[in-house]
Amino acid sequence: MLEWFLDLLLVTALLTTAIATLSSRDLFRAVVVFIAFGLLMAVAWVRLQAPDIALAETAIGAGLTGVLLLDAVSHFRRGGTVAASGRSDAAGGREQ
Amino acid sequence: MITAWLMAGLLFTPLAWAVLCLLLDFSRGRLVSCLGITVQVLVSLGLWVAVAREGGFLYGLGGWEAPLGIELRVDGLAVTFILLTAIVAGACGLHASVYLAPDNAWYRYFWPLFWFLWAGLNGVWLGGDLFNLYVGLELLSLSAVGLVALGGGINALRASLRYLLAALLGSMAYLLGVALMYGQFGTLSIAGIASLLPETQALVGPGMAMALMLSGLALKTALFPLHGWLPPAHGIAKSPVSALLSALVVKASFYIAARLWLEFGHELGSTAVAQLIGGLGGAAVIWGSWLACRQSQLKQVVAYSSVAQIGYLFLLFPLTFAVSDTASLQAQQGMTLQVVSHALAKAAMFLAAGNLILATGSHQVAGLAGVSHFLPFSLFSFGLAGVSLMGMPPSGGFAAKWMLLQASLASGQWWWIVVLVAGSLLSAAYVFRIYQASFVAKTGVDDFYHPPGSLEVIPLLLALMSLGLALVAEPLLSVMALSLETGGAP
Amino acid sequence: MKRILAVTLPLLASMALVLLLGASLWSIAGSQTPVNLPELLAGKMNESGVNHPVTAVLLNFRSYDTLLEIAVLVIAGITGISMARTASLEDPELRTSDSLLYALQRWFIPLMLLLAGYLLWAGADRPGGAFQAGAVLAGCGVLMRLGGIPLGFLRPGLLLRVGLGLGFAVFLLVAVLSAMAGEAFLAYPPGMTKPLIITIETVLTFSIAMVLLALFVSAPVNDAGAPGEDDS
Amino acid sequence: MTPSLLYAFAGAGLCGIGMFGFIQLRHLLRKLLAFNLIGSGTFLVLVGLAQHGQGPDAVPQALVLTGIVVSIAATALAIVLIRRYFHLSGHTSLEADDSDSGQGGAE
After folding, report:
1. Which of A3, A53, A65 sits opposite D3 (nearest CB)?
2. Which positions fall inside the MrpA C-terminal/MbhD domain (chain A) (predicted)?
3. Minimal CA separation from C203 to chain B, in Å
4. Domain range for residue B1?
C-alpha cells in the first residue's frame, strides 16, 4: 500500500515538473526544473528495477544535458556577440 | 561464403571510411573517398548479382537469430535500393569532390558525414528490426542535418534546425509506436510480428502503434501537409547534398512506412486510412507541383518538385489495400520504379541545378537568361531529368506512372488517374518554365563561368540512366520481386 | 480568435494523443505477449560472455544497435566541432573564479574519476558500463573546463578527431575481424567474447566522454566571424 | 494494474505534455526541452509496458539506454546549432521576421 502511494506520488511529481518545465516563464527556471525532472526520472527507473538506466539518466539525462542547457541559457542571457545587439527580446527567452 | 564477405564489406566500408575521412582534410579525404566509392559500388553490385542469382537471405548480426538478435533482411528489393544508393551517392560524392571548394575548412567534415549518411541508408534498406530501424533513421537524420548545416550561414542554420526538429519528432513518434509493438508482441522483428498478427485478438494497441509509426515516418518523408521543413533544407544545402537528401534520404523513411504497410497493413489497415494517406499523397502531388511553378529560385523549384514526387509514392497505400493481387503487385512495382527513377532524375536535376548556379552565379530562375545559348550542356542534363519527372516515355518516370495507372484501373480507383495526369501536366509546366527562362536571349558575350567537364558529365549520366530505366525495367523488376521465400540459399 | 485557436488545437491534439495512448496501453496490458524474450535471453546468457543481462544485450545480442548508436554520437560530435570556432580555450569568459567551484573541483574530480572507473569495471557483472562511465568522465571534464583548466586536447585538431573516432574505430575493427574469422558481422569468436567486450567498453568510455565534452566545448561562445558566409 | 503499468501511463501523459509544448512553444530551447520530455515519456512506455507482465526485462532496458544516448546526441547537436543560430542572427525562434527572405538564397 505504501509502495503504491510512493509510486503515485512520484508519477504526480513527474507530471507536475514536466508541466512546470514547459510553462515556466523564465528560461533559466525551466532548465532547473527540467534537471529536477531528470532526477525524478532516475528515481522512477529505480522503481522500475532498471538501475542501469537510473545511472545513465542521472549522469547523462540530468547531469550533462543540464549542464549543456544551463550553459546555453547563460549564453542567451549574455546575448549573442554578433547580432543580438538591439534585440532585447531574444536574450531573456521571454517571448512566447 | 561469398555473400558473407560481401555483407561484411557492405556494412564495414561506409563506417570505416567515415572514421578514416574524419582524420584527413578535404583534399586527402577526397582521394580516399573516391577509392571508398569504388569499393562500395563494387560490393553493392556483387551483392545484387548474388541475390539475383541465388535469392535473398536473412543475415543474423553477431550470429544471433531474430527475436534475440538483429536480423538483416537481404531480399531483392533491399539489394536493388542498395545498388541505387551506391550509384546515386557515388555520383553525388564524385560531384561534391569537384564542386566543393577544398580550401574551405568546413568541408573537411563533409566526407565523414557523407559516409555516415551512406551507412545509415544501407542500414535502413536492410533493417528487419523495428528498433534497429529507429537507430538507422537517427543516424541518417543527424548526418543529413549536419550536412545541411555545414554551410553555417543563418539561413542554412535555420533550415537545418527546422529539419532537425521535424526529424526528431518523427523518430520519437516512430519509437513510441515501436514501444507499443514490443509491449504487445514481445519481439521487435518485423517478420516475427507479421507472423503473429493474424492470431492477435485485440488490435487496438497494434493499430495505434501502426498509426504512430506511420505518422512519424510521414513527417520524416515530408508528406503533405507535413512538408514544411523540406524545401528550405533541400533548397539551401550545397547542391550535392541536396541531391543526396532529395534522391535518397527522404526515400528511406518512406521505405520503412511502405514495408510496414505491406507487412502489417492487411490486419491493421482500413480502407479509410489507405484512402486518407493516398489523398494526402495526391494533395502533395498537386500542391507541390503548383508551388514549384511559382518559385522564383531555381533550387526551390526542384525542392518543391520533390514534395510532389514523394506524393506519388504514397499512392501505394490505397492501391495495395483490399485490391486484387495483380493490382497490388503493379502498384508495388510502380512504387519501386518511381523511387528508382525519381532518385536518379532528382539527383541529376539538383546536380545540374548546382552547375547552372555555379555558371550563372545566380539562384534565380530569371538569372538563367542566355544559358541555352552559351551553356547548352548544363541545361541538357537538367532537361533530360525533367523529362523523367514529367513521365514521358521511355523514361523511368513514365514506366512508374504507367504501372500506377494500371493499378488504379485494375482496382477501380479511377480518381488516382486524375492525380497522375494533373501531376504530370503541372510538372511539365515547371520544367518548361525553367527552359523558357533559359531561352530568353541575352545580348552580349558569354560571361558565364564554365564548370569543368567532370561536373557536367555526372548529372548527364544520371539523367540518362533515369531516362533509359523503362528499357531495363523488366529485368530490374524481376530482381526486386525476389523475396526471401522464392530464393532458398542462405 | 486566431490566438485562441493556436492554443486549443494543439491542446486538443495532445489530449487526444494521451487518451488514445492510454486506451492502447490498457488494451495491450490485458494480453500476454506471445514471445517471451526475457526467458530466451536467460537461456542464452551463458553464451554471452558477461553476467549482466543489459550489458549482454547491448554489446552482444544487439551490438549492431550499439555500433550505430556510437556512430550517431560521433556524428553529433563532428557536427559540433564543425561549428566550433573556439580560438582559444583559455578564454577569460569561461574561467569561473568561484571558490565553491574550486572546492568542488578539488574534491569531486578524483571522486568522479574513481566512480567512472568503477562503473566501467562493474559493467560486466552489475549495473554500469561504458555509457554511464563515459558520462561521468565527461562530467569530470566539464567541471575542469568550468574551472578554467585548459584542456588542450579539445582544441579542434587531429588529436580531438582521433579521440572522437577511436572508440568507434576499435568497435568496428572488432566487428569486421570477427566477420572475417567467424560467420557474421559482430559475431565474436568463441572464447574471445569477454575480453573483446571489455576492450570495446573501455575504448567506448573514452570516446563517449570525448564526444560529450567536445559538444560542450564546441558551443560557439567567443567567435565573431561568420565562416564563409553562404558561398561555395 | 501493476506499478510498471502506472509508469507506462505516466509516460503517455509525458508524451502528451511534451507534444503540446513542442507544437506550442516558440523558443527553440523550450522546444528542445519538450522534445526531451516526449523522449522520457516514450522510454517510460517502452519499459513500463514490457515489464508489466513479466517483471524486469533486460531488452527494453538496453533499448532505452541506446535511446538515451541517441537523444543526448541529438539534444547536444541541437544546442550547438541553436547557439550558433542565435550567435549569428540574434533570434531564438524559427519564425523570425526575416523569414520571407530566408527561403533559399544561399549556395
Report:
1. A3
2. 14-78
3. 15
4. 1-269
